[in-house]
Amino acid sequence: MNRMNIEGKVALVTGAGHVKGIGYAIAHELLRKNAKCVALLDINDLPGHEARDELRKQFSKAVILYIHCDVSSKSSLEGAFEKVKSHFGCIDIVCNNAAVPNETDWESTVNVNLIGTIRGTYLALDHMGVSRGGGGGVVINTSSCLGIITRPYSPVYGATKHGIVAFTRSIADNNTFKKNKVRVSAICPAKMDRPMRNVGSTMIPDFEELRKYADSLSSTPKSHITDTVVKLIENTEYNGTICVVLPDDPMKIIEPQTLTLV
Ligand SMILES: NC(=O)C1=CN([C@@H]2O[C@H](COP(=O)(O)OP(=O)(O)OC[C@H]3O[C@@H](n4cnc5c(N)ncnc54)[C@H](O)[C@@H]3O)[C@@H](O)[C@H]2O)C=CC1
Ligand SMILES: CCCCCC(=O)/C=C/C=C\C/C=C\C/C=C\CCCC(=O)O
């Protein structure tokens, strides 16, 4: 197996501004594997600064930045990538992880989850692609098990997560690696031990039904997610790989649907 070493690498993680979140857990794991520089991007600055300070305490040799960034804003995301590049000199790993579960203001859910992930992936190609002067790298997009199956309670959230899976597969299949030496894969976590921020009845009209459904499920430990992210980064055979992360199976690879068109 060819390996990419995380040691000495520069990473950017969106939606990483809360110590209890998945983005933070990914950033923490990359630092544990001796990443040299990690940028945490988020819109919530107070917990974002706390997250940065906590990581600085634990990883004193690494350079850790918090950057205020709204992934749904083109200029904000472009500015954050520029800042990371100018500060660290390059970018090697991009994790597009920010998302909201808002079915009421559903346009914001499309803008943050799907458009933010697509733009984050294209910016990663701009900054890391060898055809554009970069050194290659890896993009990991955070989808969800609701990007593979459907449930009636959160149709727009589910649509954005299905969109992330489809986009990730297609872009990886589109000679992206041959042209740019950038691999793109996605993780699809099942229910986590901690719900997303602000998930509740103001965002999800059918929240009580969703809660009942959630209560019937086991929780997935965050360590499953971070282990899978590390494998997708380190093993260079993974590209366009879609992994569901389940409580009893941390890396269930989902093959694409087959349909012969005539
Ligand atoms: N918690 C769960 O049960 C599951 C979560 N996921 C996915 O995992 C990812 C992380 O979720 P969690 O850590 O659980 O939730 P979270 O709500 O703690 O994390 C999302 C982060 O994104 C940030 N964010 C929201 N809008 C943003 C914007 N416009 N620009 C930049 N940052 C923004 C939030 O401030 C927050 O820190 C999300 O993509 C979510 O859809 C997937 C499956 C299960
Ligand atoms: C749409 C809401 C967030 C979905 C998170 C996700 O991507 C996948 C979750 C999979 C199954 C569980 C479904 C929803 C869990 C959401 C909220 C539960 C809140 C109940 C609670 O724990 O208090």
Q: What average pLDDT do the residues reach? A: 97
Here the CATH topology equals Rossmann fold
- What shape does the CA trace take? globular
Helicity, as a percent range? 40-55%
CATH architecture: 3-Layer(aba) Sandwich
Topology order in helix (H) and strand (E) letters: EHEHEHEHEHEHHEE
Total of domains:
1
Q: What is the CA-atom radius of gyration, in angstroms?
A: 17 Å
Q: Per DSSP, what share of the residues sits in E-state strands of 2 or more residues?
A: 15-25%
- Specify the CATH class: Alpha Beta
The CATH H-level homologous superfamily: NAD(P)-binding Rossmann-like Domain
- Through-space gap between termini: 37 Å
Hetero ligands: 1,4-dihydronicotinamide adenine dinucleotide, ligand LZSIJSXV
Tell me the strand order in the biggest sheet.
3-2-1-4-5-6-7-8
**Low-pLDDT residue spans:** none
Key structural traits:
about 260 residues; alpha/beta; Rossmann fold; 8-stranded mixed β-sheet; 8 strands; binds 1,4-dihydronicotinamide adenine dinucleotide; binds ligand LZSIJSXV
